[in-house]
Amino acid sequence: MPDQPQPPNQLNIEISEEVAEGTYANLAIITHSHAEFVIDFVNVMPGTPKSKVKSRIILTPQHAKRLMKALTDNITKYEAVNGTIKDLEDIQLPLNFGGPTAQA
Fold first, then answer.
1. What are 29's strand-pairing partners?
2. pLDDT of residue 9
3. Closest CA to 97 of 41, 46, 24
4. Is 21-90 assigned to CATH 2.20.28?
5. Cα gap 47→86, rounded to integer Å
6. How far apart are CA 6 and CA 12, in angstroms?
7. pLDDT in tens, 23-59
8. How does DSSP classify residue 62?
9. Phi, psi of 20, rounded to the nearest 5 degrees
10. Cβ(69)–Cβ(91) under 8 Å?
């Protein structure tokens, strides 16, 4: 099939297999300056005193606001289908996550 010209304003986005696998994070740390927002994604494991940043995303303030709006829109759509997402502060999680309690 020959290459067909893309309509104007259409963006062709490719993703590598490695990136498509994703990276799990259960903590996001957000900082900002006058020129940019920095979001560090971290995977914190219970009982581990040290964690590493798994990914860092740097955004302009305009793109950070677009991201906020897109997340708000997607959460609204998700909750319309699946019900309200409970805030982690309202849920009592066991500190051992069901596994054996660590001993020193």
1. 40
2. 84
3. 46
4. no
5. 24
6. 9
7. 999 999 999 999 999 999 999 998 888 999 999 999 9
8. H
9. -65, -25
10. no
Spatial contact of 49 and 19, defined as CB atoms under 8 Å apart: no
Measure the CA–CA gap between 69 and 63, rounded to whole angstroms.
Answer: 10
Is residue 1 scored above 80 in pLDDT? Answer: no
State pLDDT tens for residues 79-89: 999 999 998 77
For 64-103, letters b (16+ CB in 10 Å) and e give beeeeeeeeeeeeeeeeeeeeeeeeeeeeeeeeeeeeeee
What's the Rg (C-alpha) of the chain? 19
- Parse the chain into domains and list their residue ranges: 21-90
